Description:
- With 233 residues, this protein is α/β, with parallel strands linked by helices.
- Helices cover 47% and strands 18% of the residues.
- It contains ten helices and eight strands.
- The strands form two sheets. It has a five-stranded parallel β-sheet, sandwiched between helices. It has a three-stranded antiparallel β-sheet with strand order 6-8-7, covered by helices on one side.
- α1 links the parallel β1 (3-8) and β2.
- α1 (12-22) runs parallel beside α5 (111-117).
- The radius of gyration is 19 Å and the shape is elongated.
Amino acid sequence: MPIQVYVVDDSAVVRQTLMHLLQGDPEIALMGSAPNPLIAGPVIRKQRPDVLLLDIEMPGMDGLTFLRQLMSESPIPTVICSTLTSQGSRMALDALSAGAVAVVAKPRLGLKQFLEDSRRELVQTLKTAARSRPSSPARYPLRMQTQRDFVLEPDDTERLANLAGPFDAHLRQVELRMGVEIANRGNVFRVSGHDAAAVARAERVLRQLYDEAAGETLDEHAIHLRLGVHADD
């Protein structure tokens, strides 16, 4: 019987490309797909796939949160396929810690071509994952190794209260793009992560974004410029 694979990815291009690629192997069948975990959850709990191919950055619920929920309920062999999981990155380590059996890093550009070129490797990864026995992950989160604080002056704290909406809206993007965690502790923003260089850069970006928010020049172009990504990612 073919290995039943379920894909959760908010990109229609990824879902369609994977459907085409997996149809070419008689040992694998695409059981279904969904654009986010909120839609996928009820389906795979009702009909359990052999392998889950899961993105991380999705609307409604991110992939790691969904993965931890699944692993605590009924572990399913899961392969993470995301632009955020480059080899050795904090996000890749967190995915493995959360219970993923393998991590595949996909590029931000040329995604369809990458999937087609990597078909053999991806199919083999799914087959290997289907034979694995995932277990509940270790208690999360892992202890952060590096921290830097961005301290606001009293006047800045009052100013930030008026900027909470536009400023906070981009903090999650900084966390995801740069592999750090940001905690707001009153007049202190604490940036934490495994990679000291990434933490230092994130703290600098945080200061720049705050200054732009204060000057009312913070917009999507600014966040993309500071994070070094393309506006259509």
